[in-house]
Write a structure and sequence with these properties.
- By secondary structure, this protein is mainly beta.
- The chain has a single domain (about 5-910), classed as TonB-dependent receptor, beta-barrel domain (Maltoporin, Chain A).
- The chain is built from seven helices and 49 strands.
- The strands form eight sheets. The protein has a 28-stranded antiparallel beta sheet that branches. The chain has a five-stranded mixed beta sheet with strand order 1-6-7-4-5. A four-stranded antiparallel beta sheet has the order 15-16-20-21, with no helix packed on it.
- The protein is globular and about 90 Å long.
């Protein structure tokens, strides 16, 4: 039986193609003299095109042309967007991901493809569902141009609190007939010392009358990701009295560790390896039988396979602090009450209590993880004198499949052969040395036991059906020259289901486990290099055999009724992680465009109604009643540009923006990590964010492909959303760091963008931009747990706290230089963003340290058709570092430090 989704796609495709064929049969094309569009190539030409688009726009808009995307040393669209003032991106896995605009985090901005939403998902099970488009899935070769609207405009979809990114695909009637472009590259990654291929190609055709054409674009990219470093699991103490969710008694002697010093719960020597394979296809058929009619059918499919394995050898120093002070040789604490050194050794003093286990080894295999995006869209324009009708209808679907085969070895804390050395030197991340004491790590016996295992699959889908119509009427009403009206309906659904096969009555060590490490080792070793992140060299330890562990899981008998022995539970639905959120959205707008005496712009009003329903489960796993909500909003906008002269433009904009909470934020659902007592949950009572925003700027276009500009902006935000850390018992397990989104009060974002671009006649050029963003903290009431002397949570109280906008760097800038002549093109770009807030935690704010990246590109034009290319990313081999700021005194505490390494591309492209 075909699914509703499949039927919709087929009906839409048949309708679209039929429309084109019927029009072709009944409308006779008229031969007219056509003027060929002059396409300016090269860096200078593309800059000139982009700046012309910026200058001619009525709103605050930045643009990138297709030639720009090809010339940037970038491998996806997010990395190209990072060159625009006011935009910063994340590169957690060495490749551009979420886009932050003017201090607003990625999930509160929107990305549209040809004016419509793009369904998306994630390959990583710990990534919660958001509205943010995942730029990892889309190669820059698929896109013909990019526009970034930073001010509100009535005819553009609501949802972008910071701004709206519109991606434009190419159309065949805009290109020469029989245009062919092919490109082949090889990528070298320094960390894994891998070499991976990339292939892309495009063919565009149109008939002699230029009334019908089609375009095919294909892209195939492979990438080996190798990320290594030290990872922390959150900090505790002093002044943080908590209990450990796995312990049978207080986490530390005395019920807290105020007298022992601050230390991470645990640190891991982590190695992440992934094989990515991204395949994209873009098909466009365009039919323009007359000057009055233009129709386009567009299909885009992009899929990324993302098999990966994450290995993490974890030392839980927090559980060893109980013995600090009983043995003066076990470590030391500095004058800021932060533990600098700790030496934990196995032995009888640990007893056999589960909470004293201080050494674990996790390997998580995610074979079969993948994500995909599909778009099918039918668009048309009808012109009749002063009347223009535009219509668009289609469907977009994003799907993600996350597979986790989780395995965990535990060391027996009473075994004298086990131990760890913890170092916190300051200036670099805390570090745990395993190999100095544990000589058996490269030849394991029964020092570690397979005591944790499950096999899990998570399936998520994001789907939207849409239909819209726009009507433009040319008028002569004084300065007003166009009246525009439009309507749009959307139904969008987000859903997630998770299933898990696990074991009941599994012991972490000894006979009750699945066996000793030696039973699951085939002689393979891994080496994790920490020299780039901690200046501590490398560590080598055993790599267990995946198949042996997988077979051991499924060799256990299936559980019966009231079975008290080791048994297997097959494909149990994880209710707490499963949900669906549905939305019906209706939008109407009216807008007037005006121009007179050097003043131009638009003024409009958008009205939007939203109906939402969220379904999920309670903390005890029982089904909840559906949460239903509805709201409406009026969103006015005004954009004015005043041409002071041919070179000088003054701009002003004012408007209101609305952003809906992310799907997971609205879901009555949980994403939990019980082994560390951490997790996140949704909140279906959340309200949408609103922002009254203002921009004023001046732009000077003093030469071709040259400009200088400055813009000041302000956003007054209400219904601010922040993550509150709370304690909760969920299905009998205590979680002391559960992040739950809440609506706060008001916050303000203010800032300035400055840009300078100049191309010299010699072929040299420079680009520079700087953005200053000041985000005020929002005052909120947070629940704080009350803990007694025995470590038991007895209640909670409200305290006034101040929370921040995540992802907002105060300072960001780009510096670039280029040179181009008839045979050579070279470009160098340096980008910087200052530290920024990530999340509020028990001990204080978690921050991301400043990020810099140096990229370069070199192209050699062998002929007019053949180009050789060399590109390098992250030349300075910068690392990603997170740290904490202790709330009590502002002391900086080191955290996670990860290295993605450098990437070098070498290739060739040919066009004719």
């Amino acid at each position: 039986m075909e699914t509703t989704k499949g039927n919709f796609r087929k009906k839409l495709l048949v309708t679209s193609i039929s429309s084109c064929l019927l029009a072709s049969a009944f409308v006779q094309a008229q031969e007219e003299e056509m003027f060929e569009e002059v396409v300016v190539t090269g860096i200078r030409g593309s800059l000139e095109t982009s700046l012309d688009m910026k200058r001619d726009a009525s709103s605050f808009v930045d643009a990138i042309t297709a030639e720009d995307i090809g010339k940037f040393p970038d491998k996806n669209v997010a990395e190209s967007l990072a060159r625009i003032p006011g935009i910063t991106i994340d590169r957690d896995f060495g490749e551009g991901q979420g886009v932050t605009i003017r201090g607003v985090s990625p999930d509160q901005n929107i990305t549209l493809l040809n004016g419509q939403a793009v369904g998306t998902s994630n390959w990583f099970v710990l990534s919660n569902a958001t509205r943010n488009f995942n730029y990892e899935i889309l190669a820059s070769e698929m896109i013909g141009g990019v526009e970034v609207y930073k001010s509100a405009q009535a005819d553009i979809d609501e949802g972008g609190l910071g701004g709206t990114v519109i991606l434009r695909t190419r159309k065949p009637l805009d290109m020469d007939a029989n245009t062919v472009h092919v490109s082949a590259e090889g990528q070298y990654s320094s960390n894994g010392e891998n070499f991976d291929p990339t292939l892309s190609g495009m063919y565009s055709w149109k008939n002699d009358n230029e009334t019908f054409g089609f375009l095919v674009s294909l892209s195939q990219q492979e990438r080996s990701v190798h990320r290594e470093g030290m990872e922390d699991f959150g900090w505790f103490g002093p002044s943080i009295d908590r209990i450990d969710p796995l312990m049978e008694g207080p986490a530390l002697a005395g019920g807290g560790n105020d007298d022992k010093g601050a230390i991470p719960w645990g640190n891991g020597s982590v190695l992440f390896e992934q094989e990515r394979e991204r395949t994209g296809i873009d098909l466009t058929a365009q039919f323009a039988p007359s000057d009055n009619l233009d129709m386009t059918v567009h299909y885009l499919s992009s899929e990324m396979k993302a098999d990966n394995v994450n290995s993490n050898l974890i030392g839980i120093g927090f559980r060893g602090v109980a013995y600090l002070g009983t043995d003066t040789d076990m470590g030391m604490t500095n004058d800021q009450n932060v533990i600098e050194e700790l030496y934990v050794r196995g032995g009888e003093n640990h007893e056999a209590a589960s909470w004293s286990r201080f050494m674990a080894y996790d390997n998580i295999y995610r074979d079969g993880s993948e994500m995909s995006t599909e778009v099918i869209d039918f668009e048309g324009n009808f012109f009749n004198g002063p009347h223009t009708i535009h219509w668009q209808l289609g469907q977009t679907t994003g799907e993600g499949t996350n597979r986790d085969f989780f395995t965990e070895f535990w060391a027996d804390p009473t075994d004298e052969r086990t131990g760890l050395d913890f170092y916190n030197p300051g200036g670099t991340a805390p570090y745990i040395d395993f190999t100095t004491y544990n000589q058996w790590m490269t030849n394991p016996g029964d020092e570690m036991w397979l005591g944790g295992i499950f096999d899990q699959v998570n399936m998520a889908e994001d789907q939207e059906n849409y239909a819209q119509v726009d009507y433009d009427l040319e008028v002569d009403l004084g300065a007003v020259n166009t009246l525009s009206f439009g309507a749009k309906v959307r139904d969008r659904s987000f859903s997630q289901q998770r299933f898990q096969t696990n074991l009941s009555n599994l012991a972490p060590t000894g006979e009750g486990s699945l066996g000793a490490a030696s039973d699951f080792w085939n002689g393979d070793l891994i080496t994790v290099d920490h020299s780039a992140t901690t200046n501590r060299g490398s560590q080598t330890y055993f790599m267990p055999d995946r198949e042996l562990m997988y077979n051991a899981l499924y060799a256990v008998d299936v559980c019966g009724v009231d079975d008290t022995s080791l048994c297997r539970n097959d494909s149990l639905i994880q209710n707490l992680a499963s949900f669906d959120v549905e939305e019906d959205i209706t939008a109407l707008y009216a807008m007037a465009t005006f121009e007179a005496n050097g003043v131009r712009g638009n003024v409009g009003m958008r009205y939007v109604e939203t109906e939402q329903q969220a379904n999920g489960y309670n903390a005890d796993g029982s089904a909840q009643d559906a949460y239903e909500s509805d709201y409406s909003a009026w969103l006015p906008s005004l954009n004015v540009a005043y041409d002071l002269s041919e070179e000088l433009v003054l701009r002003f904009a004012a408007g209101r923006a609305l952003t809906r909470p992310a799907p997971f934020q609205l879901a009555p659902s949980f994403n939990l990590t019980p082994e560390t007592g951490r997790g996140s949950s949704g909140n279906p009572d959340l309200k949408p964010l609103l922002a009254d925003q203002y921009e004023m700027g001046i732009e000077w276009y003093f030469a071709d492909a040259s400009n200088a500009s400055a813009t000041a902006f302000k956003k007054d935000i209400t219904n601010f959303i922040f993550n509150q850390v709370v304690s909760a018992e969920i299905e009998g397990v205590q979680y002391n760091q559960l992040q739950r989104p809440e609506n706060g009060g008001a916050s303000t974002i203010e800032g300035v963008e400055v840009q300078f671009t100049h191309s010299f006649d010699s072929g040299f050029g420079v680009l520079a931009n700087y953005t200053y963003t000041d985000v005020s903290s929002a005052e909120v009431q947070s629940a704080v747990s009350i803990v007694d002397d025995e470590g038991t949570i007895t209640g909670s109280t409200l305290e006034t706290t101040y929370v921040q906008f995540p992802n907002a760097s105060k300072n960001a800038y780009n510096l670039g230089a280029f040179f181009e002549n008839d045979t050579l093109s070279a470009r160098l770009n340096y980008s910087y963003r200052s530290e920024y807030f990530i999340a509020q935690t028990e001990i204080g704010n978690q921050m991301r340290d400043e990020q810099v990246q140096l990229d370069a590109q070199l192209s050699y034009y062998v002929t007019d058709n053949l180009t050789l290319k060399l590109e390098a990313l992250n030349l300075t081999d910068e690392v990603v570092e997170n740290y904490y700021v202790r709330a009590t005194d502002g002391v900086r505490l080191g955290g996670t430090t990860l290295s993605n390494g450098q990437r070098v591309f070498i290739g060739a492209s040919y066009k004719f």
